[in-house]
Input
Amino acid sequence: MRKTFTKLFLALWVLAFIPFGGVKAQQTLDITGYGTETTDTIVPIHGAVFNYKQKSQIIYPAAKLIDVIGKEITKITLFTTEGNNDQWNNDIHIRMACTRQSFLNYTWSANMPTEVFVGMLVINSDNELIIELDTPFKYSGNNLLIEYDLPDNTSYTLSSVGFHGTTEATNISRHIYGSAYEYKYNGTSSNFLPKMRIEYIDNACPTISNLDAIVNSDNSVTLSWTNPQQNEFPAECDGDVFFTFFDGSTELGGYGIDDLTTWTTPVLETGTHSLGVSISYWKNFTENVCYTEVIYIDVDVNEIPVCQPVTNLSVTENEDNTVTLEWTNPQAGDLPYNCSYYNFEFYDGFVKIGQSDDNNLTTWTTPVLSSWNHTLIVRISYYDSNDKIICFSDAQETAWISGGVACQPVFFTTTVNEDNTVKLSWDKPYQGDLPEGCTSYEFEF
Output
């Protein structure tokens, strides 16, 4: 797999005529729970009954695994109270899965874990149970489910061993042992989380860059970024990529458009959110090549703004059949968060009849209005320093214009066509019916 280096480093490779194939860096991460330290002789291995079939499942929280997202787990180490154990002579099957499930209160996890190891377990003289995975597990995010399964007991050797770990607030593990019939039951839940060290490979997968975020008026967030150039993709990738989005360690969603550069989150709660983007590279749409690390940006989501309308709106009907509107603007302390300025729009019902960018405006006069009942609206729109609208609010009053300009309505008929369009037909007003001073007219639909 390829990795992007500095131009100087790449040049040295070229000059040495050494083919560049990518680099993998081995990393380690110790995972402990949030509770008090303790030991347990049942989860994940019940050594005292190792001559019986048994199974354990454990869920490790995603928040402890953020650094491993997009990486391949190659080895796990558990820490025990005793060393040099050679009395576990049955093969254990170990399986892993990424899951949204966060506890095992009632039954086994419904996830279908991937088998990563089959073999005997031996504790070394340092009281460490080191397990080299037969198949590296690609961790893509969410909680990590690990299953320890002894489905067949060919040897009747046994030895009780305690495992170091923590007592958690919820039941995040489950265990069962016994005969083949009993093995089908749900077993017993536990709040014990074994301490574990993970070794993983930091794959050479090019990440996104220039991650940016804009908080929208509904408290969703639009993320934008720059993708790697295709010539930087891992050699095995045929151009198919998939984007996964995170809020901290929680997966928000994913999208499979190869050239995607923007995505909008669901509506988020108020507070600070660490929003992230990861790319996974694929071959033939089905074979994963690698996952990138998650690139994060911190975003402050504030309460959805409350937009105050203008107050004390009044209307004065003038002799020329215009109407003068007067109002009071919001105080500085009543403006929405991050508001830099506001402007005004004026409506007669649904028809816009004017606008103004004057922040100090408190009065405005309409054009000449027809003899009729008019709902006059003052809309105040609030903007941030990037000229992006935050929100708007309307205030309205009714004015009655009488004895002024009389605009005759147009009466029309309708005909439904075969293609489900509708034909409108009408007669134009006679010249004598036009308002005084009218030189032209137009139609709106």
Confidence is low (pLDDT under 50) at residues 1-23. The chain has three domains: 24-201, 204-301, 311-401. Residues 149 and 295 are 35 Å apart (CA to CA). The two ends are 60 Å apart (CA to CA).
